[in-house]
C-alpha cells in the first residue's frame, strides 16, 4: 500500500496514512483519462450558436428583377447567400455536444488521474480543514503553510466557512468527494484532501 504523510493546517506533519492500491496505485489508462476530459468539456458546451439560413431570413419573397433582358445575372431572391443581408449557406444550429462514458470507464479514468497525482507527489492529505469564520485571508494562510498555490481542495462535508473562504481565490476550487472529476484533478497543480475525504473516496471507489 502507498503511504502518504498527513499534515495539519499549520503545515506540520502529524502522521501518515495508507492509500488503497485499487484506487491510488492502478495502471494509468491515458486514453480513458483523455476521453473523460473531452467528455466533460463537451458536456459543458452550451451548443447555442445559431445563424439564419435563406429560408429563415425575413424578406426576399419577390424576384428582384425579371429573368432576362436586364443585363444582370438572374436572381430569385434578395435573401440568397450572395446578397448582403442574405442567409448563411450552412448555418450553425443549436446542438447537443454531450456524449456518455460507461460507469466503469469513468471510474477507471478517475482512478488513473488520482494515481498520477499520487505518483507525482501532488496529493496532500490534511487531518482537517476547519475555519471559525468566513475569511479568505485565513484560508490563504493554510495554503501557504502547505506550500500550495493552485489547488483542488476536496472536502468530506460542505463546510460553508471553508467553501466561502476559498471562493475568492482564483487558483483554488473546492469540491466534495462525490463531485470530483478527472478534469479538475488534472487542471490543478495539487490536490489537497482532508483525511475523512480520503476515507470516503476509498469507501466509494474501492
The helix-and-strand class reads: alpha/beta
Number of domains: 2
| Quaternary structure | single chain
What is the CATH class of the largest domain? Alpha Beta
CATH architecture of the largest domain: 3-Layer(aba) Sandwich
Q: What is the rounded distance between the termini?
A: 13 Å
**Beta fraction of the residues?**
15-25%
Major sheet: 6 strands, mixed
What is the number of helical segments per DSSP (H or I, 4+ residues)? 7
Query: What is the helix content?
Result: 25-40%
Give a concise summary.
The chain has 206 residues and is α/β, with parallel strands linked by helices. The chain has 2 domains: 2-45 and 98-205, Ribosomal protein L4/L1 (Ribosomal Protein L4, Chain: A, 3-Layer(aba) Sandwich), CATH 3.40.1370.10; 47-96, no CATH class.
Question: Which features does this protein show?
Answer:
6 strands; alpha/beta; Ribosomal Protein L4, Chain: A; 34% helix; 7 helices; Ribosomal_uL4_dom_sf; single chain; 2 domains; 206 residues; 6-stranded mixed sheet
Structure description:
The protein has helices spanning 21-24, 30-44, 103-119, 136-145, 160-167, 182-187, 195-205, and strands spanning 2-7, 13-19, 123-126, 151-155, 172-176, 190-194. It is α/β, with parallel strands linked by helices. It has 2 domains: 2-45 and 98-205, 3-Layer(aba) Sandwich (Ribosomal Protein L4, Chain: A); 47-96, no CATH class. Helix 5 links the parallel strand 4 (151-155) and strand 5. Helix 2 (30-44) crosses helix 3 and helix 4 crosses helix 5. The chain is elongated, with a radius of gyration of 27 Å. The two termini are 13 Å apart.
Amino acid at each position: 500500500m502507498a503511504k502518504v504523510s498527513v499534515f495539519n493546517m499549520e503545515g506540520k506533519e502529524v502522521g501518515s496514512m495508507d492509500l488503497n492500491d485499487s484506487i491510488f496505485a492502478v495502471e494509468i489508462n491515458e486514453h480513458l483519462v483523455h476521453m473523460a476530459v473531452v467528455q466533460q468539456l463537451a458536456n459543458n458546451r452550451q451548443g447555442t450558436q445559431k445563424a439564419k439560413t435563406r429560408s429563415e431570413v425575413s424578406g426576399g419573397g419577390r424576384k428582384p428583377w425579371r429573368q432576362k433582358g436586364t443585363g444582370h445575372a438572374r436572381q430569385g431572391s434578395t435573401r440568397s447567400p450572395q446578397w448582403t443581408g442574405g442567409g448563411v449557406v450552412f448555418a450553425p444550429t443549436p446542438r447537443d455536444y454531450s456524449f456518455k462514458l460507461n460507469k466503469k470507464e469513468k471510474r477507471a479514468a478517475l482512478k488513473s488521474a488520482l494515481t498520477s497525482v499520487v505518483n507525482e507527489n501532488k496529493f496532500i492529505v490534511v487531518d482537517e480543514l476547519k475555519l471559525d469564520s468566513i475569511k479568505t485571508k485565513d484560508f490563504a494562510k493554510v495554503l501557504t503553510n502547505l506550500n500550495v498555490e493552485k489547488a483542488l481542495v476536496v472536502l468530506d462535508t460542505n463546510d460553508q466557512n471553508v467553501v466561502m473562504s476559498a471562493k475568492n481565490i482564483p487558483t483554488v476550487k473546492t469540491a466534495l468527494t462525490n463531485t470530483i472529476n478527472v478534469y479538475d484533478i488534472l487542471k490543478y497543480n495539487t490536490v489537497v484532501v482532508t483525511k475523512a475525504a480520503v476515507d470516503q473516496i476509498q469507501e466509494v471507489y474501492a
